[in-house]
Design goal:
Non-ribosomal Peptide Synthetase Peptidyl Carrier Protein, Chain A; 337 residues; globular; 11 strands; 43% helix; two-stranded antiparallel sheet; alpha/beta; TIM Barrel; nine-stranded parallel sheet
Length: 337
């Protein structure tokens, strides 16, 4: 598959851009397990052009992450163009435009999925950004605003016509948020439209190897993007790739392997953020790494309330000792990073 100037393997797997999730530490572990293409957390165009500290920090990229995209959102064309130029200076492989975030505070002001209520502005903004930057521009969006406006087939053609290099489609409307089952039927229709020449990346409810293969085979998408299913489970990329290549399902990692990974992830988070901020953002990952352990409630509570790094390490060591034996080998050398 070719995305702009980037050549990817057949049936590549993408890590979705997610606020407070796809920071450098999580991208590190997802890349370690074979994510083919990753994105930063989405960045506010207004925050970026005003040099907001958190927005500028999200531009930090690392060579081992490549290929990687920076995703922007906003509702004002001039601001989005200026932000795209600024983001291009950080050296990403693509600029991605977020026309799909359903969060009310974003969509209500016309950004993210709010753009699905103003298609002329979406097309105008995309065209202006394509003209303003030298690197490929991609888009991520949804089927439509609600069940009465599933306009993705028309939108895909119009976005392609103004020069985007790839399109990711989440198989829900904005009104659905993340409820119900993602509908891949329209994603498949876009992909199989003879007018569409750009790569189509499917997104929504890919939660394991068998589901991933089904989406590739049934709908013919060029790539799959995985979001919520990666929470506390970055090895999903390894599992899917192995299944696509061999037809074999890999066993769940052992508790000791998960403990080693949690410590590695924590160390990486501490490299990029101050102690308290690193711990707070790690909590959702730590909770999910050990999800499902019997009799884990009390230990989980301690893990998710401590603000002391040493104590968290001790709790993870306790989990390793109490709940399981290692299998899977040393994680840190698997992909040479």
């Amino acid at each position: 598959m070719k995305l702009g100037n980037t050549i990817l393997r057949e049936q590549p797997l993408f890590l979705a851009p997610m606020e407070d999730i796809t920071d450098p530490s999580f991208r590190y572990v997802c890349k370690m397990f074979g994510a083919d293409f990753m994105y930063t957390e989405f960045i506010s165009s207004d925050g970026l052009i005003r040099d907001g500290r958190s927005s500028v920090k999200k531009l930090d990229l690392f060579d081992y992450e490549r290929p990687i995209g920076i995703q922007l959102y906003g509702h004002i064309t001039d601001s989005m163009v200026e932000a795209a130029i600024r983001a291009e200076e950080a050296g990403p492989d693509v600029i991605d435009l977020n026309f799909g975030c359903p969060v009310r505070k974003i969509a209500a002001r016309g950004a993210g999925a709010g753009m699905l209520q103003n298609i002329p502005l979406m097309i105008e903004m995309t065209s202006a950004i394509v003209r303003a930057v030298k690197i490929p521009v991609t888009v991520k969006t949804r089927l439509g605003w609600d069940d009465n406006t599933k306009i993705i087939r028309e939108v895909a053609e119009r976005l392609q016509d103004v020069g985007i290099s790839g399109l990711t489609i989440h198989g829900r409307t904005r009104a659905q948020l993340y409820r119900g089952e993602a509908d891949w039927t329209l994603i498949g229709e876009v992909k199989n439209n003879p007018r569409i020449k750009i790569p189509i990346i499917g997104n929504g409810d890919v939660n394991g190897p068998e589901r991933a293969r089904q989406m590739f085979e049934k709908y013919g998408v060029d790539a799959i993007m995985i979001g919520r299913a990666t929470f506390g489970k970055p090895w999903i990329f390894r599992d899917i790739r192995h299944y696509l290549d061999t037809g074999e399902l890999l066993p769940e990692p052992g508790v000791e392997e998960k403990a080693d990974l949690a410590l590695l992830h924590l160390d990486k988070s501490l490299e990029h953020k101050e102690g308290k901020a690193a711990i707070l953002e790690m909590r959702r990952h730590l909770s999910n790494y050990f999800k499902g352990l019997p009799g884990f409630k009390e230990t989980r509570l301690r893990l998710l309330t401590s603000l002391d790094v040493c104590e968290i390490r001790e709790i993870i060591a306790e989990i390793r000792e109490k709940w399981g034996s290692f299998r899977g080998g040393d994680l840190t050398g698997i992909y040479g990073i």
